[in-house]
């Protein structure tokens, strides 16, 4: 990894640290003011203020005590311009504090980061749950949800 790639990945580490500390304000501080945050449900939460408030609800409620943990594979960092980086990585959450995402909680994560005057910030994020589409198919062709 280059120094620039490590700078970008350090932001992702700070995001995980803030989540793991249950600190929604610190978590949101790593996003641009007008960031887009797309959840694994496909819902967009636009703007740092909404990212903070929604994560406060999560971190004080159903995700309290959860940990963000790396998934399989190394993150891919690509610079589309010197001040714009795209990162695709694996990751997920552990409700029990384990070192790996729990079953059904692993995602492919896509980040677009911008270098601002005070460092790198996430301008766009998308969380896509890893699943096996064939596992949701039935012999009669009807789809079922994955648990």
From TrEMBL:
A Pfam family recorded for this sequence: DUF4440
Positions of the UniProt region annotated as Disordered: 124-147
Start and end residues of each DUF4440 domain: 9-122
InterPro entries documented for this protein: DUF4440, NTF2-like_dom_sf, Steroid_delta5-4_isomerase
Name recorded for this polypeptide: DUF4440 domain-containing protein
């Amino acid at each position: 990894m280059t120094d620039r790639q490590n700078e970008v990945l350090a932001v992702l580490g700070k995001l995980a640290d803030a989540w793991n500390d249950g600190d929604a304000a610190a978590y949101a501080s790593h996003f641009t003011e007008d960031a887009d945050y797309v959840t694994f449900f496909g819902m967009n939460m636009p703007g740092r203020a909404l990212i903070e408030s929604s994560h406060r609800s999560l971190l004080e409620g159903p995700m309290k005590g959860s940990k963000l943990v790396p998934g399989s594979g190394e993150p891919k960092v690509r610079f589309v311009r010197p001040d714009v980086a795209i990162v695709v990585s694996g990751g997920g959450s552990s409700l029990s504090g384990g070192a790996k995402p729990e079953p059904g909680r692993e995602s492919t994560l896509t980040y677009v980061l911008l270098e601002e005057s005070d460092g790198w910030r996430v301008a766009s994020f998308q969380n896509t749950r890893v699943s096996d589409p064939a596992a949701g198919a039935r012999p009669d062709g009807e789809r079922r949800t994955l648990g």
